[in-house]
Amino acid sequence: MPETQPNAGNATGTLLRGAWPAIVCIALLALVPTLSAMFDNPFLIRLFTRVLIFAIVAVALNFVLGFGGLVSMMHAGLFGVGAYVVAILAVHDFDGAPLWIFPGTSNLAITIPLAIVVTALVALLSGAVSLRTSGAYFIMITLAFNQMLYYFFVALQKYGGEDGQQILASLSFAGFDITKRVTFYYVSLAVLVAVMLLFWRLVNSRFGIILRATAQNERRVVALGVSPLRYKLAAFVISGAITGLAGGLWAAGQQFVSPADLSWIRAADFVVMAVLGGMTRVWGAVLGAVVIVLLEALLPNYTQYWQMPFGLIVILIVVYLQGGLAGLFVRDRPTGAH
Amino acid sequence: MKSKSSAAILAAGVAVFAIATASAQQGPIKIGHMTTTSGPQAVIGIDMVDAFKLALKHSGDTVAGRKVEVIWGDDQAKPDVGRQVADKMLESDRVHMMTGIIFSNVLLASVKPVLDAGAFYISSNAGPSQLAGRQCHPNFFGVAFQNDNNFEGLGQHMREKGFKKVYFLAPNYPAGKDMASGYKRYYKDGLAAEVYTSFGQLDYSAEIAQVRAAKPDAVVIFYPGGMGINFVKQYAQAGMMSQIPLFTGAGTVDQTTLPAIGDAAIGMYTGALWSEFLDNAANKRFVEDFEKEYKRIPSGFASASYDTARAILAALNSIGGKVEDKDAFRKAMANVKFEAVRGNFKFNKNQFPIQDYYLVQIEKDAKGRTVAGFRGTIMKDLADAYGSDCKMPPLK
Amino acid sequence: MSASLFIEQMLNGIQFGVMLFLISAGLTLVFGIMNLINLAHGALFMLGAFLATAFIKWTNNYLLAAVLAMVITAFVGYVLELLVLRRFYSRSHLDQVLVTFGLILVFNDIVRLIWGVVPVQFRLPQAFAGSINLFGDVQYPTFRLLILAVGLLVALGLYYVVVHTRIGMWIRAGASNRPMASALGVDVGLIFSLVFAAGAALAGLAGLMTGSISSVQVGMGDPVLILALVVTVIGGIGSIRGAFVAALMIGIVDTFGRVLLPPALGSMVIFMLMAVILAWRPKGLFPVHA
């Protein structure tokens, strides 16, 4: 099977042709604050901020899931780690009590990178163990790690335990207030676009090719003299780090974190977003996040029995749209990736 | 000509604005009711929704000639979903106040945007200690209870009855610890054992074996919802009911769980902030109409929800439905007079209730249903312990 | 911990383990033979419990009610396989997880539409409602002894059917080489339908056995599903023997973990055990295709 790989350097044309739904989608998302002002409904921005942050996680998750074949059930846990890093440092800043020897801080320019680093470390340690397994065993061992992280934060009584932790300090990014609703929305959108570009580059790099080849036929990759484990682990750490970034944004946007952010149901939601969106495209997960978050927010307005239509929609998409929602817009090429 | 026409447009604009404002004045009073109506905890949420609807029906969905509109929401028992629904109700539906949350963690996540927006939160269930104490707020009213209240009367009762060695079990989450501290506050002697199990646990055989080996005088549990059903059934099946008496405060063995526990719970004593047999006119009407409307006996959750709706309506009525005048509404709420189905009721300084605490015993009624038979009042005028930490700004 | 308390807790652990085995037996059977991850197993578990309560009310005969509940749950499983899940044998595990996840949501709301949100009562037959004196002063609930017996019977029965009978041979043939089995005249489609129905019946049985000691309510299958998946994976996917060993191990470790460890660790202990075992044996304790 020939690898018809567009060269990442001069493939702008291909990118635009293949990724037009992504560009339309981002353009529409960019219009949300305007629409919200037009209809005098500021809630729209909040709802779509949730969409954007979950979309970042879904895109990051899909990097290991869609391209690496690794179904991780611990991305909610990683998301929560990032969120708690930002929250805990802000709490110590507010109380004026140092965390061990480090002073707390509400400066996101420090806490968000820290969230990324800490989450990457957690992903590295758990990934190194989890990647010994594969398939359904990988799903379950990552679920185990997710539950351990969940119960860890439940046990942290100092930061609210099960009740969660309110962030009372006012957060800023190196002195700029980015937590204002519209500003924060555009910041999140910019991060999402940057993350999509990052993964698009990665997927189409040598690294991405080996990762995808590993997912399809690990033995062939080994025969080429490459150690697939190192590639998978690197991918897992990158995916985890970006998920930690999203978690940090989540804490900043909500000004509230709780162990519920790490629940295994949230982890499953992320997987559903990535798969329903369409795993073979970097931008598929964005569609998944939009659809799932909107369905979950809108359906309960009509009936108490909203889980039934929600379940039926999931079933219908899986049965009839094998390429996920992305398949509605573009035909799938098995080896192409955008 | 040009200036004239723009003047006309301006005039038209002003007129439209004036009409819009006027109609906003006459628009309905909007209450956001968010509770858990999906998942395993929906049984509590549905009871609360039904009771709230009943109270509105009793007042004809209007107060002081103004329509009352309720926007219903489901928090799925998740803090972040609760916060999102609260944002939607505030910013999209523009509610004047919110109510309905069951779980303290959902309340703590959702209440900040409500209070920040200058709206009111009137709690019909969750009453975390933070909001009764240091973080008390002029726009927050807890009609149901402060969490600890549920077990305070029981603690006093068991002290008076001379139980010396008491074994306490609860799920490992903040409300479980609130109940324990409420119990200990009035029991005073300290517990023989305080055991916390994981939330949502299925099997309690190991814990029950430990209880048996410890040979306490009595066992006290706080297990809301399905956990309570599991524990009480398994305790009875292990033959423990006749060996070591089982007690619980309000909110574990009630009409949300009794139909499933069945005969196993008969004879059990529990503390309560309300009973379906309380002898007052408001309660008789509530229980009768609730049964007629929904074909089941209301629970304590329903009673608190009904009282909440009635307190809100009474306060609104006393100010002629002018909910936009926030200072007036705040004052009206703080001094609200209404006939509560639970009997005595008034707000403390921290805007949490001062109420009586009862003892009930599970028995069969004439129709063969398991009910909570009224056995008497344990405590009069029970107030929570956190009021002294609350520095409530004086009413304007 | 005194000796008699230790023995009682050991018994509790074994009994909990056997219950876990009952819960996961159907899941691992379907997973191992058809390579299908069926999350709707938890929904069938719930259905079995609700049907049993309804039939007990109707017939007043526990055994008859249990049989009826299992038969109907099996039939629902059969229809489900025919209409939806049949198309998913050749699809990825991920698609299977998603479609059966959707089924859980649908089933939860259907059960809620029929039975309402208030948990329903499960009446035990008088003979099993109490407890008996085992030794010393240890009273043990009679029904838990019944669960123990039924679980062991199911374990033996499954082992016998799969390893020693002609049907078992067909099943194993169909699972390991479908075209070959078809060529030999085995109706693989029918066999798979029947295995799925049997898995559903086992889920229903587990539901009605568990429902008699716990709360029968909407969503009762969801937390149980996680436990069943943990058992299946630790044991090695598709291995009945593995599921049995893993279930006992988890039952005992969880029981003692809850009693001896602080609550935060106690909640984690099952998952820590799973992570350690999978790190040590990445395909579970008894890998099927070693």
Overview of the structural elements:
The complex is a heterotrimer of chains A (338), B (396) and C (290). Chain A has 338 residues and is mostly helical. Chain A has one domain (20-264). Helix content of chain A is 66%, strand content 1%. Chain A has 13 helices and 2 strands, in the order ααααααβααααβααα. Chain A has a two-stranded antiparallel ribbon. Chain B is built from 13 helices and 14 strands. In chain B, strands 7, 8, 9, 10, 11, 12, 13 and 14 form an 8-stranded mixed sheet that branches. In chain B, strands 2-3-1-4-5-6 form a 6-stranded mixed sheet, sandwiched between helices. In chain B, α2 crosses α11. Mean pLDDT of chain B is 91; it is low at 13-24. With 290 residues, chain C is mainly α. Chain C has a single domain (7-280), classed as ABC transporter involved in vitamin B12 uptake, BtuC (Orthogonal Bundle). Helices cover 74% and strands 3% of the residues of chain C. In chain C, strands 1-2 form a two-stranded antiparallel sheet. In chain C, α2 packs parallel to α4 (93-115), α2 packs across α8 and α5 (142-164) crosses α6 (166-176). The longest helix of chain C is centred in the N-terminal third of the chain and has 32 residues, at 3-34. Chain C is globular, with a radius of gyration of 19 Å. The mean pLDDT of chain C is 90. Classes of the chains: A mainly alpha (338), B alpha/beta (396), C mainly alpha (290). Chains in contact: A-B, A-C, B-C. Chains B and C meet through α2, α8, α9 and α10 of B and α1, β2, α5, α9 and α10 of C.
Précis, in short:
The complex is a heterotrimer of chains A (338), B (396) and C (290). Chain B is an alpha/beta fold.
Key terms:
heterotrimer, A: mainly alpha, two-stranded antiparallel sheet, 66% helix, globular, disordered N terminus, B: Rossmann fold, Rossmann fold, 2 domains, 13 helices, 20% strand
Would you spell out the secondary-structure blueprint of this structure?
The complex is a heterotrimer of chains A (338), B (396) and C (290).
Chain A: H1 12-18, H2 20-38, H3 43-65, H4 75-95, H5 108-130, H6 135-155, E1 165-166, H7 181-203, H8 206-216, H9 218-223, H10 228-254, E2 256-257, H11 264-277, H12 284-298, H13 307-320
Antiparallel strand pairs in A: 1-2
Helix pairs in contact in A: 2-3, 2-7, 3-7, 3-10, 3-11, 3-12, 4-5, 4-6, 4-10, 5-10, 8-10, 11-12
Chain B: H1 2-26, E1 29-35, H2 42-58, E2 62-63, E3 66-74, H3 79-91, E4 97-99, H4 104-116, E5 120-123, H5 129-132, E6 140-142, H6 149-160, E7 166-171, H7 174-187, E8 193-197, H8 205-214, E9 218-221, H9 226-237, E10 246-248, H10 258-261, E11 269-272, H11 281-294, H12 300-318, H13 326-334, E12 345-347, E13 353-364, E14 370-382
Parallel strand pairs in B: 1-3, 1-4, 4-5, 5-6, 7-8, 7-9, 9-10, 10-11
Antiparallel strand pairs in B: 2-3, 11-13, 12-13, 13-14
Chain C: H1 3-34, H2 41-59, H3 62-83, H4 93-115, E1 131-135, E2 138-141, H5 142-164, H6 166-176, H7 178-183, H8 188-211, H9 221-235, H10 240-260, H11 263-280
Antiparallel strand pairs in C: 1-2
